[in-house]
Amino acid sequence: MPIMGWHDDLAKRAAAAGKTSEEFRSGARQRARMAGIWLVATAIVWFAVGWPWVVIPAVLAVYSTAQRVSATLIAMRLEEREAAQTPPN
């Protein structure tokens, strides 16, 4: 299944569960902050211990970034749904 189709499916499930786009935007912001923290930790570990130990915080930073992107894509899909359900004035 293509990645866009996967996020569309996740957005449908989230809407069915009563989740809003703002909840996913909030989660995306939180994951962005965590990615930044992991990047700082990566730099500290690099200077303090050396290269082999850098892998752990670097992988966590990449994982947090991937979660942020995913939450943002789902939020965009939910915003489209919410806009379509809002009656015009």
Commentary on this structure:
- With 89 residues, the protein is an all-alpha fold.
- The protein has one domain (3-85).
- Helix content is 87%, strand content 0%.
- It is built from 3 helices and no strands.
- α1 (3-16) crosses α3 (51-85) and α2 runs antiparallel to α3 (51-85).
Could you list some keywords that capture this structure?
87% helix, mainly alpha
SSE topology:
Elements: H1 3-16, H2 21-48, H3 51-85
Helix pairs in contact: 1-3, 2-3
Alpha-carbon distance between the two ends: 38 Å
Number of helices: 3
What low-confidence regions span 5 or more consecutive residues with pLDDT below 50?
Answer: none
Which sheet architecture does the biggest sheet show?
none
Q: What number is the mean pLDDT?
A: 89
The assigned structural class equals mainly alpha
Number of structural domains: 1
What is the overall shape?
Answer: elongated
How much helicity do the residues have?
Answer: over 70%
Question: Rounded to an integer, what's the Rg over CA atoms?
Answer: 17 Å
Tell me the strand percentage band. under 5%
